[in-house]
Amino acid sequence: MIRTHDAGTLRATHAGTTVTLAGWVARRRDHGGVIFVDLRDASGVVQVVFREEMATAHALRNEFCVQVTGEVGRRPEGNENPELATGEIEVTATELVVLSEAAPLPMPVDDQIDASDELRLKYRYLDLRRSGPGRAMRLRSRANQIARTILHERDFLEIETPTLTRSTPEGARDFLVPVRLQPGSWYALPQSPQLFKQLLMVAGMERYYQIARCYRDEDFRADRQPEFTQLDIEMSFVTQDDVIELGEAIVGALWKELADHEITTPIPRITWHDAMARYGSDKPDLRYGVELVELTDYLRGTEFRVFAGAIDAGGYVGAVVMPGGASQTRKELDGWQDWAKARGARGLAYVVLDAESGEARGPVAKNLSEAHLGGLADAVGAKPGDAIFFAASTDRREAQELLGAARVEIAKRAGLVDENVWAFCWVVDAPMFEPTEEGGWTAVHHPFTSPNAEWMERFEDAPDEALAYAYDIVCNGNEIGGGSLRIHRADVQRRVFDLLGITAEEASDKFGFLLEAFKYGPPPHAGIAFGWDRTCMLLAGADSIREVIAFPKTRGGFDPLTGAPTPITAQQRTEAGVDAKPKPAGPTAGTSGVAAPVEPS
RNA sequence: GGUCCUGUGGAGCAGUUGGAGUGCUCGCCGCCCUGUCAAGGCGGAGGUCGCGGGUUCAAGUCCCGUCAGGACCGCCA
């Protein structure tokens, strides 16, 4: 080692010790006759003092990489710095070696100053020298370790699965990789290891996990990157409760150690339907109340056409209350209309209750009968001074989701979110299917998700009502993990495919290898996958998953550091077989649509 | 694909109803300085105002287009 101690570990007990340190110049304070340098390494910062005889230190600049030898001493009386862990002492240098110099910095390596995202990503190696970003990396490493410890204690095997594979049917667009040895054929990068982990269950591994990189070619967000990580888990011979118990053990350990928060177990469970009815979301933020109230029956018979139209068509009318919302200006109330329109709704009807008289006012109030207005406050649980927002639609879920989004916005604007609270829940009993635009059905989770016991033998009777053994774990309104019991009976799988309109040929073409495996005694199995970036983001208190990824990409999928993606050369293009000519006919492939097979070129 | 915000020396920001010279803080370079910890003092260098077009006597400022970054919707478990 070219150093004897880590800078951040030095304490008063080291006084009198001669140490050699190595690290970076975090800051220098040059007084002419004496120079102070804050020396930073991964462990922290310590003040190094250069006296007159160490004149070479004048040439030091920020972020020079240096090796310093000197004696640890207590700082002179009154010069201690209680802000620093090493603030009681300093190192008086007797030797200085500049290991490497630093050019003028394109961005400050300083915890105080914030640079733009693009610049931070371009110089991510400088960004990560800062304590906040560096801490996020260390936290994530620790999170991995905690999860691995729990899983190994429980006899899980860490098994890697391919990243060059064929499409698995998660539903997102695949990233594709041309195959030089078979021009015209392509690998897909996995959207998740879903099918492989099920094969590992057939293989008798019984307990599998992997911190797995996944790839989805969709539009990106603050919490979505083209490549992301799942803590992926699958177990044989278990029930839903077993998976949930494991999930709670992992989450409990993570939050205990990394967020200093003891999660009360069992984590409350709410059914998907209750979550939609009460919170208008399948990932409800339970840090605050502001629950939805259904008014379909209460308002039955109303002459207000917006509501009557929805009710008569068998739809839904509901409301959500904004505490104190009556004090909003006309401009603010109009702002809600723009807010609603921005997410595709026609608008957001509202009534405000006068703070003194409790009288209902606002454009919608004129359209409601005396009787409806009279009991409204009680029906929705509103007080004088509150505002009531309404949504009505023939599509129950659509109206609930609008109110659910309004609920989140209300909490934000009314300051109801307590940032110090961690509110977890499991959302269980999710629906198996949802209707497609073409009048068919599609799997909400994925087509291998098992119907629950109640629906196992009759999900075809009412596909819109059938429930699955599927569960999501939600933290403060973020889905951090989800999973399901899988179908292991061939007959049930066949019936699900039938309902989804997947023929035997198509099924065999898309994932025949899994169906083939399921012929040979597949065990009952279930699993869960945690969105690891999102989980670490929450633990780090960050508001973007970019903060917990070492080298993230921008919204456009661009990496400002490497400049990826780049065009390829003509030679690469030819060798990769990107332009191989399609054959007129042949066996199909891919996850959907007709494949374009090729002639060898 | 849609809506919105941002783009001004290396960094972070200001720039009024369009009007004389684009200003501040940090950093950078030089000099001074023995107890600072966001050290201080003096001096200096550094800018196609993202890019293209238009309106105007005159555009950093107004309009159109475009590029880049960000937030959201659609999409995506």
From TrEMBL:
PANTHER family given in the database record: ASPARTATE--TRNA LIGASE, MITOCHONDRIAL, ASPARTYL/LYSYL-TRNA SYNTHETASE
EC number, UniProt record: 6.1.1.23
Residue ranges of domain Aminoacyl-transfer RNA synthetases class-II family profile in the record: 137-560
HAMAP family attached to this UniProt entry: Asp_tRNA_synth_type1
Assembly with partners or alone: Homodimer.
Full protein name: Aspartate--tRNA(Asp/Asn) ligase
PROSITE patterns per the UniProt record, alphabetical: AA_TRNA_LIGASE_II
InterPro entries the record matches: Aa-tRNA-synt_II (IPR004364), aa-tRNA-synth_II (IPR006195), aa-tRNA-synth_II/BPL/LPL (IPR045864), Asp-tRNA-ligase_1 (IPR004524), Asp-tRNA-ligase_1_N (IPR047089), Asp/Asn-tRNA-synth_IIb (IPR002312), AspRS_core (IPR047090), GAD-like_sf (IPR004115)
Keyword Transit peptide: no
UniProt-recorded Gene Ontology molecular function terms: aspartate-tRNA ligase activity; aspartate-tRNA(Asn) ligase activity; ATP binding; nucleic acid binding
Residues reported to bind L-aspartate: E170, R216, H445, R486
